[in-house]
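Sequence in, structure out.
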Amino acid sequence: MQETAERLLIIDDDEMFCHVLDRALSRRGFEVLVAHDAAQALSLARRHQPQLATLDLKLEHESGLKLLPELLEIVPDCRVVVLTGYSSIATAVEAIKLGAVNYLCKPADADEVLLALSRAEGDPETEVADNPPSINRITWEHIQKVLQEHDGNISATARALGMHRRTLQRKLQKRPVRR
């Protein structure tokens, strides 16, 4: 009797990234499903009950953090890794609290995704940075924390930070500073 392949759902609005990850994971024997928005993801999850999933933190008009609990309500045993090009401590903590098993910064390849999905426990050998983060990185982290506290509401976040809404929008459109 042939064993069925593990089903993995990729939820990301970047079609090229989905295509590359789909091909790489299919070659490794996974049955891959791809969704580009929340509605499509939830529909595929209901129909196919994936064991694994990757979830983009920042979908076109939706937050992956808001989608995560809905996904896990449909498929409680699904192991979800949140992927993002907009990483912050606040979103990493929230993703784990909401049920993700791991959190990866993009770009991430198939091997990194599979490693993140397979790791059940933390790694005490993880390297600790020698230098503190830059002031730009600390600013980015603070903005993300306040944005999270205001449920992604740009206007409320701008008021809380004491800045103009458009200024905040410009800052959020930029990629985060690495260090």
